[in-house]
Amino acid sequence: MTTEVDHTVAAAGPSETDAKLRQENQAAFSRDLEFVSSLANPFYLNHLALSGVLASAAFLRYLKHLDYFRHPRYVKYLQYPHALHMLDLLQSEPDFRLACRDPAFVGEVMAKQVAHWATWRDPDANAADEPPESNPPTTESA
């Protein structure tokens, strides 16, 4: 007795599985991207700190997982480059995680961030932050 295999059902199975897996991966990526992007907001960091999330070992492991956003394949999706800097600080600076509880510190971080946004493309504004040359050039008369 031979049994026939319905190849149309067998062929549909893996593609449906692949489609479901792709959809789950896209949803996970979207959640991770939204979360990493939110790290650029100092007020959100304050909320996380006050709720105790920043002190959680599980949260620190999740931050480590988010390092994949540093890869060129994924970094291109970030709109706020500060998010990666905040990710660094959250991963490596326990004092930064504690300081995020302080509204004054959060306000200072926000002010520095806004100041950076206002001047990062303006070379004249950035030149004002540089110290003057110690020996200014002199003109020689002929």
UniProtKB/TrEMBL annotation:
InterPro entries linked to this entry: Med31_sf, Mediator_Med31
Transcription among keywords: yes
Keyword tags: Activator, Nucleus, Transcription, Transcription regulation
Places the protein is found: Nucleus
Classification via Gene3D superfamilies: Mediator of RNA polymerase II, submodule Med31 (Soh1)
Domain of life: Eukaryota
GO MF annotation, one: transcription coregulator activity
One protein family per Pfam: Med31
Coiled-coil features, chain-numbered ranges: none
GO biological process: regulation of DNA-templated transcription
Keyword match Iron: no
GO CC terms of this entry: mediator complex
Record text on subunit structure and interactions: Component of the Mediator complex.
Family the entry assigns: Belongs to the Mediator complex subunit 31 family.
PANTHER family in UniProt: MEDIATOR OF RNA POLYMERASE II TRANSCRIPTION SUBUNIT 31 (PTHR13186)
Biological role stated in the UniProt entry: Component of the Mediator complex, a coactivator involved in the regulated transcription of nearly all RNA polymerase II-dependent genes. Mediator functions as a bridge to convey information from gene-specific regulatory proteins to the basal RNA polymerase II transcription machinery. Mediator is recruited to promoters by direct interactions with regulatory proteins and serves as a scaffold for the assembly of a functional preinitiation complex with RNA polymerase II and the general transcription factors.
Protein name listed in UniProt: Mediator of RNA polymerase II transcription subunit 31
Organism: Pseudozyma antarctica (Yeast)
